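Lecture notes, structural biology module. Today: joint structure prediction for complexes of two components.
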Amino acid sequence: MENDFTQTVEIVGSNRVEPSSELPIIDVTATELGSKPAPGRGLGKWLVGGIATVAVVGGVIAYRRRANASSLDESKGADPDTGTGTDGGSGTHADAGNDESPKPKPKPKPTPVGKGWWSQVPSLPTEDDVLGFDLANNWGKTPKNLRPLFALMEKVSLVRGSARIFALIAFREAGFKIAAHNDSEKETSASRRAYKNAKDRNRPLTYGEASGEFGSGGLFGALAPYFLWSGVQAMKGDAPLLRAPPEVMFIPRIAAFGAVVYLRRLIAYYQIDDHADIKAGWASPTLLKSGRGGSTYKSVRTRFFSDAAELGLDLGDTLTIPAHLSNGLWTGVAAAFTALTTIPVEETAKLPVGPEEG
Amino acid sequence: MATEILDCYDDALDAFTDDLAGDFDFLSSAERETWLAEQWSKVADGGGWGDAFQRTLTNLRQSQLGLVSIESAALSAFSSFIRREREEPGRSDRALIRASVLAALQEKSAAHLWRIETDVGGLPSGACYGRATWQPAPLNAKGGKLAGQAGGSQGEEADDSAQVTVLPQRTFLADAGPSYFWDPAPSSMIVNLGCGWSTPLRLSLGTFPWVYGHRLQAPAPGLAWRSNSTKHPAPVAMRIAAGMWHPEGNLRADARDVVAAWAHWRDATRSLVEPLPTSKTEGPIYRAGQRLVAAHTSAEVAGINGPRGFVCVAAYNFIQERFAAFFAMRRALLRGRRHLTPELRELLMTNKDPCVRQQLGVAVLKFA
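The predicted structure, tokenised, for the full assembly:
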């Protein structure tokens, strides 16, 4: 277990988005909510999560980072119907209002990500995908269009009560912005270190170096290299994201896959005393071990309860969130991947593994 | 957003707190952490390590956890500052005993750390340093002096040629007589004469580094507490002081002590402050709300003078702000009490302060 990369998985608590990019091709402008993805691979335009429009141009996909969004309160993004802030951009709830303005820095070279199975992942699930799931009670200000995604995650993970916990994590990590991205110097340093330290004991990533330069992001604030290694313990070389670029974390169903796998590992391998411990583990599993009881551990827990109050979730409502989350029996990582993304895992293996890197 | 929560302690406390520490919503992580960063900035600026703290703050804001770890990061920055400025191997004994005394005080009276008055007899080494097992040496036939061993370490061989008389010394300064922090009542406490203690140990840790009620001139005495390679009394004291404006330490404290300390401070300084003008055109020091401003010179040099001693403007403002920060955090915690972590709720429920009990709706039983 000590050699298991998830021992050191770090999922960010404070994303920050830089306001520029050279080759904006994935446009995270809020448009065409609810549209279905275009059939077929590599076709002109499709939607990610209802708010991100992805264009494939010349067989190269990049993304555009947008100015940092703000908290629900500030952005009113907060709009429980759309899940989008007033700026429609990616960003984070974390530290909203207490960050300094990002300093201009050299624009990084966009990652050329090629096209692949991820272009066929449907947009956000809808109520029809989670029939019978309570999407009305104890969600607080969770955007209505994201509730089915969190519900689907609970159904797939078989961790009863996890839907609201996933919502709370997305609120903290990304302010419900699906394209939240923290590529600050500190964060890219962390992802670079993560890749460097873990690459020799894990399966190779096609976009390994790129993931090291990526930082973290997505709805659940995943650190890029660890995100791409999601499921590798169970599936070895068949883990579905080994050949994918880090930008796929901006696709909500794929981000959800990483989060589901991670939650189950936290519950299975760490001491989780209550719901706030899940958030502590999300920030850094070290907090559940040597950091337990320290000031950072306590502060993360305080944040968790504050966030719940701010979002309007009642953590004591055992009808929707049992007092302790536990793993139900499931059919495995591969099945979870397919259930969330609709993509058969075999599809993901059709791309070559290797140092493509552009 | 201020509420009547603090009225339970004193009607003037709400306005005092608002002016000096502002108000924030404990349940808003952004507001809470911004407020904490402001408090640390004030403390760091007041202690001369503001630049180091600002660098820490910048790094924190870029880090994956953001300001969530501000307490540990700020303490680490302060510790580095002190070690760089104040680490001195030659003062090893004193650092060791100081740190041991502070640890003992924390263990002994966790709820009453703001202002401590205690018999030194119950403290490690009697709060003395220099010779851990000091005993009066036999009278020297020639001089009749007490002769100790040079260096004074236990178990060392005597070296007659280097013999120097080294008596144990007090680990902290004696804060005797009426001061801005105390009006000591006659006491039957047992004093330890081993190193000259003739008073109880009195420390105002809530206002660290201004810990003595008689010494409120710059630089603050707590900043002179030296470290050795393993013991760092100043950072230990800073951790205690910082706890007062962080949730856990704040809820652990019995606010009645803090209110009493604040009332004493207010009464002791009132006659010095009230005559001061409120406009900078009228004098070298003027009042701006609850703070003082030195118009023509630095806040470390300018001050007010009274029968209890001199108080520089920097110390006055710092102490005012620390009191206010305690009450601001207490108010925010009580207002957000329904959404605290289980650990904080536990501390709240076991706090014996009647004003806390009143807020919780717990009956305060009074027996005739």
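Point to remember: Chain B touches chain A at residues 26-34, 37, 58-59, 61-72, 246-248, 336, 338-344 (CB under 8 Å).
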